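Audit log entry. Action: structure prediction of a protein-small molecule complex. Ligand: zinc ion. The ligand was supplied as SMILES and no pocket hint was given, so placement is left entirely to the predictor. Protonation state taken as written. Sequence taken verbatim from the request; no trimming, no tag removal. Recorded inputs:
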Amino acid sequence: MELRKDPITRSWVITGDDLFEAPEHSTECLFCNSASRPGHVVASLSNSSGSWSARSIVHPHPLYHIEGDPSRRGDGLYDRMGSVGAHEVIVENPRHDGHFWNATDKEIELFLRLAAQRIQDLKRDCRFKYISVFKNYGEAAGQEFAHPTSELTATIFVPRRVLYELRAAREFYESKERCVFCDILSQEERQGIRILESRGDYVAFCPYAPRVPYETWILPRGHESSFERAGASRVGTLADLAALLRRTLLRIRTVADAFHLVLHTSPNSQHPSATLGYWKTLDEDYHWHIEILPIIQAKARSYTFKEIYYSPVTSETAVLRLRQASV
Ligand SMILES: [Zn+2]
Ligand SMILES: [Zn+2]
Ligand SMILES: [Zn+2]
């Protein structure tokens, strides 16, 4: 597998002829029984009774590999790189049915803390530009394992959507000296028409221009560019985030069977490109958040949906329906 850069949009794609190998089907769950494969456990957090609650494991079919040559090679006008990186499965809960909406807030908090620790840890490797944490739930979302899991990738490039956000946030900051996410949040809280719920320092709302029906974001009210810094230092507040995440997903599940969830945090400032001053205002201009993109089956296959986002439900209507869900 290798990474190739689209010379027009400047986004990297991962490609190779071995991508569609069918995973072997085994009857026993890899993650319920992962205690028997200790070599694969990268990190683990335990609950107060001492048994593991969340753990990170090397992905059984990784898209990225820790070893290899990450160096960029030219091919005429094209750029390519080896698919160097890390690919882990974060097991959210030891219980096979312990999905976020069946989990306790404490269990979700431990998952969030482990995700923060893994991001911090991988950011020490200055080859990596970005660490992504995401979850695909439901068949339409490409869920891989029945067990409650999220994924983590460390990549030598910044994913396209995050790059757009970083560039836009920096431009906004250059002209206004304010964080665009803080501005959005204060306007949304003032207007109140797209706010789903707030808990402690965290707010869930449906964004003004949604890409999909019922798209929902969760942001901390206090400005912070890095989830992992918030996750590691202000331990108490993760309980509020855990509760809000659980309640929001319960609401989302009343309207969609599948969703993508992605954490957007700051890129790795240890990467050599940051020393050139490229991301000097990063801590001021970027603001971490979680995006939940429900999948409404009928629309998922249309071409329009991939090129121009079309949402047949406005955020104002979406938030009314989601607020009514019993959680
Ligand atoms: Zn399981
Ligand atoms: Zn902010
Ligand atoms: Zn985002």
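Audit: result stored. The radius of gyration is 20 Å. DSSP finds eight helices and 14 strands in the chain.
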